[in-house]
Design a protein that fits this description.
The protein has 17 helices and twelve strands. With 388 residues, the chain is of the alpha/beta class. Strands 1-2-7-8-9-10-11-12 form an eight-stranded parallel β-sheet. A four-stranded antiparallel β-sheet has the order 3-4-5-6.
């Protein structure tokens, strides 16, 4: 009897051999389901190995509620309509406000919570109290658990410490502050890390969460090339993310590490941080490394996710290119153990994206059974290339 999707994905993360190659659409944006019909959603759950990334306490902002603590419920006012959400956080030194615009494909922060670095004083004046088990809302997790059961994996979306101030200030102010006042950024990152760790410890104490708890750690790309010097990655990402990953491992959890853009120069650093999975390893021009190069460096050391482009490849109606690229991805990355065939984690999907994942899952059911017959995969690639 074959594995269910949850077992299949976890097997890949643990560098064990699954029954067949997992094919996982990563759902980060619940709005996508508003544009998908019920049959497509049912087919995605039934035929692929979906990974659903959820926020805890998502009502109160998104990533930053973690570092404000449980009292954000008392001091946060939220006004929503179809077009936008306005968030106001009351602090002893004045209000902080944020505007989030709702677009069909995704949500966008159009007004950051911090307008200047002076707003850090408002943040530090906020009456922080760490979360306890009862104060963490699991509604989104429980909802998805009831929907997918064992036909997928739920992971907890967790922004890393380095990206917290980036999100609160917005890109332009964050990078200018890095240049003008590195110590301010580093001090804030250190405080954020301590609070994230407290939060993660509390999450992992909750008996309602099925073990192992899996965290999707995001935000590293803000200090990758070409956005920043690699020295900043060493100072603001490596030490803090390493601490968090170790904490999660010490408590029996797993970590999937997401990073868009260029990863070639930081690949060895990422490996030393110790995550169980990494992705999506975008090929040029979005990134700077091929899937085969990644596999050569990480073979049997860490699980790889990716890397078919969500918008340029998977969203197209013409599925010939999807087939060819899927077979090439299997050839290049399914050697040994630890590969999940997927996209580039854009969260911007359409119906054709869903159809592409279902198609790739069907390919895996025939050509992705372990041990994989790579001669058949190569023969299929040559056959498809003849008809291009």
């Amino acid at each position: 009897m074959g594995m269910n999707s949850r077992e299949r994905i976890l097997s890949a993360f643990r560098l064990k051999e699954p029954d067949r190659l997992p094919v996982s659409i990563l759902i980060l944006n619940p709005n996508w389901f508003n544009i998908a019909d019920e049959k497509i959603i049912a087919d995605i759950i039934e035929e692929t190995d979906p990974i659903i990334s959820v926020y805890l306490n998502a009502k109160y902002g998104t990533e930053y509620n973690i570092i404000f603590g449980k009292k954000i419920r008392e001091f946060c006012k939220i006004v929503r309509d179809k077009r936008e959400t306005k968030v106001t956080i009351h602090t002893p030194r004045g209000d902080l406000s944020q505007t989030i615009e709702h677009r069909e494909e995704s949500d966008w922060i159009t007004e950051p919570l911090f307008k200047t670095t002076d707003d850090l004083n408002k943040y530090y004046s906020f009456p922080y109290e760490p979360y306890d088990v009862k104060s963490i809302c699991l509604n989104e997790y429980i909802y998805w658990k009831n929907v997918i059961k064992e036909q997928g994996l739920i992971v907890f979306e967790t922004y890393n410490a380095a990206s917290m101030l980036y999100t609160l200030l917005g890109p332009e102010r964050y990078y200018t502050t890095l240049i003008d006042n590195f110590d301010l950024v580093n001090d804030f990152t250190s405080v954020a890390e301590e609070r994230i760790e407290e939060y993660v410890k509390t999450v992992m104490q909750n008996s309602a969460i099925e073990e192992p708890a899996v965290f999707r750690l995001v935000g590293q790309e803000i200090l990758g090339k070409p956005m920043a010097n690699i020295k900043l990655f060493d100072e603001l990402v490596v030490p803090y993310d390493s601490r968090l990953i170790k904490l999660i491992h010490d408590r029996g959890g797993l970590v999937y590490e997401h990073m868009h853009g260029n990863t070639r120069d930081v690949l060895n650093r990422k490996l030393r941080m110790g995550a169980d999975g990494m992705g999506p390893f975008e090929a040029p021009p979005g990134g700077d490394i091929t899937l085969r190069e990644v596999k050569d460096k990480l073979l049997d050391k860490v699980c790889i996710y990716g890397n078919l482009d969500d918008m340029q490849v998977l969203a197209n109606k013409d599925k010939r290119d999807v087939r060819l690229r899927a077979f090439k991805a299997i050839r290049d990355a399914a050697r040994g153990v630890g590969y999940i065939l997927g996209g580039t984690e854009s969260s911007i999907y359409n119906i054709e994206t869903a159809k592409s994942f279902i198609l790739m899952s069907k390919i895996s059911s025939i050509y992705g059974n372990y041990p994989i017959d790579f001669k058949k995969v190569e023969d299929k690639i040559r056959s498809l290339e003849l008809f291009e």
